[in-house]
Structures are given as structure tokens and as C-alpha cells.
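@here heads up, posting the sequence + SMILES for the zinc ion run so it's all in one place. Ping me if the SMILES looks off, I pulled it from an old spreadsheet.
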Amino acid sequence: MQVAGCRLQVEIRLGPPARRNLQPATSHMPAPSLCLFAAEPLDRCSDARADPDWIAARLADPESLLLPLYKGDPLVSGDAPVWLATAARAEFPADAPVVFLGVARGRAHFALDASAAPSPESAPFAGIGRYAPLREAAGFFSDDALAVAGQARWLLDWHRRHRFCAVCGAPTDMADGGAKRRCASCGAEHFPRSDPVAIVLAAHGDACLLGRSPHFPPGFLSALAGFVEAAETPEACAARELKEEAGVTLTDVRYQFSQPWPFPSSLMMGFIATAADRSLTLDRREIEEARWLTRDEIRALLAGERREDARLPPRFTIARRLIERWAESL
Ligand SMILES: [Zn+2]
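bot reply: prediction finished. Complex C-alpha cells:
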């Protein structure tokens, strides 16, 4: 297929088809497809990408691939991202940011920010698919495609919002294929931001604690979560959040696994914790409702039981995976 003089590649998959599974991972090394956005299909080539000539050569390589995104939403056709030949850059504004994502099967993958167009419908190549909301694409992309689209959204969003040096205020330039920005004025280097979040499933005996934020839909329950503060460990954050939001004292906090969440830059770190008792004192500004559900109740819900007063988080969310892991444990 020829578009604007360049080869167009549609529905190239980075790896095998969707292979999400609900098998419990081993405790030390969770499967990469454990949670949405958590697969790692690309070699990020951390050393090579620091060489501008290497990046330029990859961009010029006709085998390299380019995913355009409009304000973080990838170009989609069918149920897969549209990977263009890198020559398709000519169809976008010359200053459209391009970031290097990594290499898979010998082919470099790049992402391009198409956000300069007035609308997603008018952005280049919209006619061969659509720029689909990433949250929607999460419902049909393969694990690998979703992880790469999430990485692209994360990076491009960071570059859009960090064009000036936080030290001296001068404009900064992209470096290392987009893995960082550098200030030409003061020499400071700036790296993509990750906002760590501790998400905690507290358990006491045969029950676990689920809660509902005021903005959750009715009946929807999840593990409690909060942002890690300055100079705070995620474990300390987990204990603090449970104390502040639910009045629960944790006696043991155990890390399980993590999930990148590119809306825009959260790194969710999942914990299962032991509570000292089941007494609750809720901070109603943060938690509208919280209650202890027994393992039998949780297992029934995981098996598909419908309850208006208790709806679990969707599959492949880290909260769901924590609940599953606890329910599967003895
Ligand atoms: Zn500076």
C-alpha cells in the first residue's frame, strides 16, 4: 500500500496475539503481561540511543516504524495500532516531536506527536483509521501493542509539558532519542517523570478491605491508593494512606508487582498488607465507603457473581490482580 510516496504498514503486531492470562505469577518475577501497560516488548537500547547518529540512521532505515499519536491517542485501524514507515514523517509538520521507543525483531520503533493538527479527524493519516482514546484501545490492543502505545503517550506528553528548564527557565532540547531533555543554557538534564503510587490491599484474617472514592461509580470497590510523597518509601506510603483514609493500622506491608499508568505518568506499585484489626475510621473526603469482604465473597465475585453493592475493578488492572492474588492465596 502506497500513501504519499511511502510504504504504509498497518496492523503490524509487535509480538504474539493477546496473551493475557490470569495465572498467578511467581512471587519474585511477575509475568510481563500481568497488568495493562506492563508488557515490555521493546529493547530500549539505552546505550545506543545516546548516539544521535545511531538515532538518525534508525530514522532513515526503511524498515523502521512510526506510530503517530494525537494528544496521546494512537492511530488505530481495526484492533491494532497503525505503524507507518518513518518516511511518513514528511506528512506531518517538520517540528512534530519524534521519540525513539525501542527495537523489536531488528526494527526500530518511533512515536510521533501529531497534536499540532486542529483535531484528531484532521491529523495526517486519520483517513486510514482513527486516533482512538488510549483507554478505549486498552480494551482491544494486544498486551505488547498497549505497552508500546502507553510508553509513546507517556513520553510525548512529558515532552509537551516540559519544554523549559526547571532550573533556569531556558528552553530545553530533546536528547537520547527522547529519553531525556537537556538545557543548553545551564546544562541541566531532565528525565521523564514517573509519579509513584502505592496501591494497597489490606487483609485481616479471612477478609480484605475494599473502598470507594467519591468519584467511583455506585457499587464499584477497589484497593486503596495514594501518591508517594517526597522522601517517602512506597511501603511507608501504603501504611500512611491506610491510616489516613480508613483508620487502619498495617502491621506488615508486602510488595507484589507494579503497573505503568500513562494518564499521564503514574507508576502503580501494588502491595498486600496485614491489618492490626478491622476497625474503620473513614476520611469521607477521600473514601465514601469501605468495608471488609470475606475470601468467599471475593471468590464468588471473581467467579462472576453480580452484586449491586460490590463490583470489582476490571480485569488486568493492578487492583484486580492484587485481589486475585490474595483470593488465590491460602
Ligand atoms: Zn537550565
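MO: Residues 1-33 have pLDDT under 50 and may be disordered.
MO: One more: Residues 77 and 129 are 5 Å apart (CA to CA).
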